[in-house]
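Course assignment 3, question 2. Fill in each field.
Student: A.L.
Task: Predict the tertiary structure for the chain below.
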Amino acid sequence: MRARKYNQNCPIAIGLDILGERWTLLILRELVGGPRRYGDLRAALPGIATNLLAERLKELQGDGLVDRVDLPAPIGRTVYALSELGWTKVLPILRSIAWLGLDRLDPVDSGPVSPLNGFLAGVLLPFEPGVTDGLDITCRVEIDGRRFDFAVSDGHLAAPHGDPAVTITASAADLVVARQGSTEAKRRAALRRVGVEGDPDAVAAVRQAFAL
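Answer field:
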């Protein structure tokens, strides 16, 4: 049981009971990028105490938002992943918070852009659910050596299933500039460098759904 709760029969208070603790949303942010080992999460969240990370993961598993998966040999390791419920319930919240913070990001030319930031700003945030009716495919995004897999299913983003039908390849900087470039020319130039390959019909649908 969590030590602190609002004890209010209100959907916002109950939601905050689940997601309002420090680090919880950032853990979920990392898992949007795919299954992660405990050590991967520690490395991506500098400053979190190891016992606190373990506690948060246990709470999120108890809430049904995160799955703990023991991979078989020869891999033989434990990873944490967003559950189907996590994709359905948490992703819209993360997207809304990211929209709030997007225009406050430091300019791209002031420092490096992480692959995860490129994925969030360049792929997930521009997603338009209304144009994906009937689309059911798995997509792969390759960003600066890191791979992100997800699916589009029933008009929303979901956990990947099966082999990807479409692969998007880009640098994190280009994905951010394509959305936030200071001029239309810079945005268009960055967008032209984003590659989208796969089944032609699926590519056309993905380009429309993600404004690519």
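Instructor remarks: The CA atoms of residues 2 and 59 lie 8 Å apart. The mean pLDDT is 89.
Grade: pending
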